[in-house]
Amino acid sequence: MTYTFTCDQGHEPQVFTVDAENDDEAVEKIAEATKTHVGESHPEMASVSPEEAMNMIRNKMVKAE
Ligand SMILES: [Zn+2]
């Protein structure tokens, strides 16, 4: 399955796409894929716990069969 995650917090929308077997795997892959972007564009996220960041991804990602 393909999962897409769009980050548009304070900038032009940037879309990240990953392939994963299930939601848990997708969350992990998106967290990995967005690491550099978050580090560069969202320094405030450094104070968010990993669990909270994972929840944010889970709530926002979109699954495409
Ligand atoms: Zn962003």
Summarize the structure.
Helices cover 45% and strands 23% of the residues.
Molecular structure report:
There is one protein chain. This protein is α+β, with helices and mostly antiparallel strands. It has a domain at 1-11 and 35-65. The chain contains three helices and three strands. β1 and β2 form a beta hairpin. α1 (23-33) packs across α3 (50-60). The radius of gyration is 11 Å and the shape is globular. It starts with a strand and ends with a strand. The structure holds zinc ion. Residues 7, 9, 11, 14, 37, 41-42 line the site of zinc ion (ZN).
Helical content stands at: 40-55%
Task: Say which molecules are bound, naming each kind only once.
Answer: zinc ion
Radius of gyration from CA coordinates: 11 Å
Tally of strands:
3
Element-level helix/strand string: EEHHHE
Q: Which percent band covers the strand fraction?
A: 15-25%
Quaternary assembly: single chain
So how many helices? 3
Overall form: globular
Kindly name the structural category.
Answer: alpha+beta
N-end to C-end Cα span = 5 Å
Residue stretches low in confidence (pLDDT < 50, at least 5 long) are: none
Question: Strand count, sense and closure of the main sheet?
Answer: 3 strands, antiparallel
Overall average residue pLDDT: 95
**Spatial strand sequence of the major β-sheet:** 2-1-3
What descriptive keywords fit this protein?
65 residues, alpha+beta, 3-stranded antiparallel beta sheet, 3 strands, globular, binds zinc ion
